[in-house]
Amino acid sequence: MPTSTSRRGLLFGAAAVSTGALLTACTSNEPKETGNDQADVPVADDKPGKKVTIGFAGPQADHGWLNAINVNARERAKKYKDVTLEITEGSNDTAAQIGQIDTLINKKVDVLVILPADGKAMTQAGLKAMRAGIPVVNLDRIFASPQAYRCWIGGDNYGMGLNAGHYIGEKLKDKKNAKVIELAGLDNLELTKQRTEGFDAALKNYPNIKKVARQAADFTVESGQAKMSQLLQAQKSFDALWNHDDDQGVGALRAIKQAGRDDFLMVGGAGALSAFQEIKAGKGVLQATVLYPPTMAASAIDLARALGQGKGVSGMAEFEIPSSLTLYSAVVTKDNVDEYMPTGFK
């Protein structure tokens, strides 16, 4: 997931359910019309165009969100008769993934979509592909050099924290001396720091609220349960919890139920199906989750296809696709959960 430099990009005000659809509707194989009558007409992108082979080097599916990335890429490619997807096994080992990318380069794919195991460490792989004349769509974890990719698309970690903080802030704005706690992800990751920074920035708008505890987990069910148990033992009374990740949130909810606690509200992160179902049921502490949409992989396939076919994005004046797309971290609650349910990952 990206470093803070990713936030320089275009902010898309589209949530997970609409991001891919927007790109699908926005690219076109049809000749551009120059007359004013055609200027504002959206063009569907379901007609076959130039055949494009897309190489996809994704992550090892050892986490619900990472598995959803691979699934979204595969399913999106199937929708296009003019796209052939060359997909690697997926690896969290930098050396192994570099080898996989070398194989895709040697196969002379038209475009590469890469979610690197480590963006900084794999920058040379992106540079190698670009120098070989293969445009790269850098997915989420950003390369250290903009020369290593043609387009970056990913989530907004700072925005996740910001929106989670504002949601909790609005819920507690009338409560005196409100207390919140935070169950973070891996603290050695830049994305975790960004999520906390966004959360803290939002809470500054609510002087009645104080963050009284923060505990880092490992983005796993087991760590979520263990760390949440520790927080519950240390904090006998608080009003809200923000959990960075819905996978570890499964464990956190187990700990909460085992402790018999229901005296606070909980906000999750990412957009797992289990979180959506819990929110819809409305019987527990989980009231909302803030998206980090894995549909970005589907949109990356859309962008790669557009690059391979030399297309731009309709609705924008430019002839080329943007160099950067930052997805919006929508807040999913009981009021809108049905809309997002199809995008939930397992």
UniProtKB/TrEMBL annotation:
Transmembrane segments: none annotated. It is found in: Cell envelope. Residues 54-311 form the Periplasmic binding protein domain. Pfam families: Peripla_BP_4. Keywords: Signal. InterPro entries: Peripla_BP_I, SBP_2_dom. Belongs to the bacterial solute-binding protein 2 family. This is Substrate-binding domain-containing protein.
